[in-house]
Structure formats: C-alpha cells, structure tokens
Amino acid sequence: MYGKTSKGRWILFSLMACGFCGGPFVSGATLTGTFTDIPQGAVVNLTVEGPLDWVHWGLVTESSVDRKAGVTPVIPDFKPLGLNGPYPYGDNFNSYSWSDGTPTANVVSTTTGVWMYGRTNGFEIEVPADTKQTTLKVYVGTFAAVGNFEATLSGTGLKYTNASLSNMSNGPGGCYALNFSADSPGQTLVVKYTVGRTFAADGNVTLQAAALTAPGANNPPAVSIANPTDGANFSAHDNIRIAADAADADGTIVKVEFFQNGARLGESLTSPYSLIWSNVPAGRYVLTARATDDGDATAASAPVEIFVSEGGGTLSGSSVLPPANVDLTVAGASDWAHWGRSSAASFDHKAGVLQQISNFAQIGTNAPQQYADNYTAYSWADGTPIVGESGTKTGVYIYGVTNGFLITAPADTEVRTLNVYVGLYRAAANFQTYLSDFSAPAYTDTSLSSIFGNAYAVYTLNYAAASAGQTLSIEYTAKTLYDADFGNVTLQAAALSGGGIPTNSPPVAVTILNPAADGNRFNFSFATQSGVSYTLEFTDSLSPINWQPLTHFAGNDATVSVTNITTATQRFYRVGAQ
Length: 578
What we know:
Blueprint: E1 10-15, E2 30-37, E3 43-45, H1 46-49, E4 53-57, E5 65-68, E6 79-81, E7 87-89, E8 95-98, E9 101-102, E10 107-110, E11 113-117, E12 122-129, E13 134-143, E14 145-153, E15 158-167, E16 174-181, E17 187-198, E18 204-213, E19 222-227, E20 232-235, E21 240-247, E22 253-260, E23 263-268, E24 273-277, E25 283-293, E26 298-300, E27 304-309, E28 314-320, E29 325-327, H2 328-331, E30 335-339, E31 347-350, E32 361-363, E33 369-371, E34 377-380, E35 383-384, E36 389-392, E37 395-399, E38 404-411, E39 416-435, E40 443-445, E41 449-464, E42 470-481, E43 488-498, E44 513-518, E45 521-527, E46 533-539, E47 548-554, E48 559-565, E49 572-577
Parallel strand pairs: 3-8, 20-27, 29-34
Antiparallel strand pairs: 1-2, 2-16, 4-5, 4-18, 5-9, 6-12, 7-11, 8-10, 11-18, 12-17, 13-16, 13-18, 14-15, 14-17, 19-21, 21-24, 22-23, 22-25, 25-26, 25-27, 28-41, 30-31, 30-43, 31-35, 32-38, 33-37, 34-36, 37-43, 38-42, 39-40, 39-41, 39-42, 39-43, 44-45, 45-48, 46-47, 46-49
C-alpha cells in the first residue's frame, strides 16, 4: 500500500565549483544529476543497468540486501536516517529483475522495496568517488509525501538537490542518475533521500535499488548460467546441455566460454549461447560461464553445481520437525555426536565405539559460535568426554551467506541411517549430501526457511555405497539471509544406526548375577566396565519375542543392581554392551 513518485518529466541540474559563484574552485571535479520517472508496470533490469555494481533492497524483509555477484561490492547498504523504519513493502509501481545476483541469483519482476516515514526520515548511501567518471542510478519514490533528494561530493563543495518526486498517495517511482568524478582519489559521493512535505501521517519515501556504471567506458558484460539448475542430478555418460544468458549494455557479446571445475569446455559465439558436454563421467562439478564483449571486457557467471552418478548405491532423504527431546544413546546405536554443549568447540560423541560421525568442518569464513536456546533438548548416557547429559538445548551456529557446516560418515554396501539435527534463524538453508563414489544421485533440500524467527529440522538419510571404504558428506549452509546481521544456520546433533557397530576392542562379556523374583519385583545385577555403554531390554514372552527398552547407562567398573516392578507373572531380560 505504499507507493512512490511523481509526474512525468525529467530535470537536469549541473553544478561545478567556480571562482565567481562563491564556492571553491575544483579542477576536474564534476557532479550532475537528472531525474526520470518510471512508468507504471515498467521492468528495470539491474543486471543491464549496473554492469559495475547494483543493489536491491527489501526482497523479503527490511534487512534483505541482494547485490551483483562476481564483483567487488562498491555500493554499500543504506544507512537509515531517523527512527521511523525501515519497513519492507511489496507493491511498487514498477518492478525489478536480475540474473547475476547474490544471495538470490535470479529474480523476475519483483515489486519490493523499503520505506521510512516522517519528516526528515529517509536513507543515506555513500559511494566511493575518484577521478574516473561514474554514473550512479538511485531508484526511489514517495507515498503521500514530497521526497528531498540530495547528493554531495566530498572535497569539492559540489551538491545536487531535487524535490520533484511528489505523490498525494500512491504513485509511480523514478530514477535519479548522478554523473560524478572527483579531482583526487579517496573521495565520497553522499546521497540522502528524505521525507520533505507530507500529505498524511504515514507519508514516506521509498528506496528500491541502485546501479553503477561508467559512461563512455567499456563496461563489462553480464552473464549467467540458465541451464542446468544449481544442484541438478545427471546419470554418468549423459550429454549435458549448458546454456547461458549474456548481454552487454554498451556493446555486443563476442563469445561465451564454458568451464567445469575451472577447465575450459568450449565456447559459443552466437545467441542462444550453449554447448553440449558429452559423455560426462560420474562426479561433482562446478560450472561457470565467461562472457567477452566487443571491447574485450569480460565477466564471469555465478557458479552452478551439478552431480553425475553412475548407480550401484542408494541415497534418499526426508525432513520433519524434530521432537522436543532426543535420547542420542537410543537414536545412535552405531554412533552419535553432539556439538556446542559448553562452547563452540565442544564435541561429545558415543564412547566405546570407533568414531564414525566426524566433527564438523567449517564452511566459509565466519567462526562458529555456541547457543543455548534450541527447540530440542538432547540427552545421552554413553558419551565422551561428557559421560551423561539429561537434556541440553545447546548447539552451534554460523552466520553469513554460503557459510555453514560439513560433516561426514562412513559408507559401504550396508544400508545405514543417519539423522542430522539442524536449524536456522532468519535465513533459508541449503542441505546437501552425496556419496564419495557418486553411486547414487545427490540429495538436496532447500525447503527449510524462516523469514522472522527460528526453524528446525531433522534430516533422515538412508544410504549405501556401491563399494566399501566410501564416505557420505553432508553440507549445510545458508542460501539466503533475511537478516543481514544475524541470519544464521545451526547444527546440534547427528545419530547413526545400521551398518554394524565397530568397536575399539573385543565384545564385552556380561554375566547376570543373582536373578530373583519377589512378588512383583524382578531383581538381578551384573558387573560393568568404564567406557562401555549398556542397554537393558525385556519381553514378557519368547513366542513371539518383542523386546522392549528398559533403561540404558554408561559403565563405571562397578556392579549394578536392577529392580523392575511389574504386574507381569514372568519376564525375560537381556543386557547389551557396546
């Protein structure tokens, strides 16, 4: 319900400091500005408009910042001026598209943006300036207000002001184009866009996007891979078609080259730009494209990852909300792991077995941190270095786009089940797992997401490789952040069952001592060993046998007495040690 800008017209205003106009004389510095309204329904292609850099704000929340991928960022995030906002909105009069973005790679016609209300409230953007001529386009609007636009070039005294954007209520938006250059490096163009006059209590200014280009220069082209999609699976020896979209705002595309894992596959000289990669062997591949324009400027696409498998193994996955309480000793018959109990470096796992679930490896540059308010509480009785835990809600998290965790587990021809307990805060995640021999298609899931708070999942992976000595790898990373400062993914625990229970020592002997019955009490005892996990089960009948769990605990080199009170007339017990 919050719209934008003013009447259909353009304004040109130029300022240069001079000796007779009262300002300092600045040789070579320039600042000119123009305003152009944007018709309702028009689509602004930021990939084309911002060959040097672009930014879009408010795609999902007020903290959403999408920008051009594959370049060093030049346009920073805005600074809010005042306390009334920012807030997101989704009904802008024109829309925005891009095909080379991060964290959102491709968007078609979004009408989102951000707004601030109240007089003198608004936005500030600071862009570096040097002696090169540069053009910054800022896409803004108003709702029930007049917008004051001001641009100042540091070290020069040059200023551009304009207040022509005005809407009595909703209305179309506009674009301010600023052509500027400083007479020395290290200067700054400061842009402020604030509420001037208001026509209603909620009168506001809006900001949607900004784009950077260099007039008169050969700006780099734009390129993105259109096919295949990220995370796609193929069969070994398939012929895979790789296609790219490429455009050049100030010239033409000469060629588009294609690469896999950095090795050149070939090139395409005409649109549509594509090639066939023939007889592809099993493996994991990262595909990129590089476009060259008629001025010999180049640009690289964002990477696309694909998997090629040759069969013989199995890998399937699913996810649900985890329960409020998880007993890792019960869930992880073969092995289990928990992270973050006391600190970000805490790693507790099953004792008395050969460790199978690895400690996590950090993905990305941001350090893991510990937290203690998880949805699920975890307990165990056979752990190391902490032997027992009655219910901890701790875990670890990593913030930042593409940052996260990598863990591994063994794989061979026996079927195993691995449960991985994860979560996130104000983010969307990418959960991806694959076998080292690529004997089954990779499993990828991007459904876990939360715009405003926490979300949790337990992923259940059933898998077997085509041969012995293989590995299952699990990568869990942030795909999109809905909070640029605090959005993160979390990891708490994992539990493995099946495939046998490898141990560091021969099986532990268990001898039942003094079994007896006294009314409704069944009693027995047995000696325990430190470092060994014991599980007690019972059944009331051996035909059929239906073993039920009774209890579990870690041994301590002492004799344990067990008393079971029941109304059953007979009961059979067994003790398992591992």
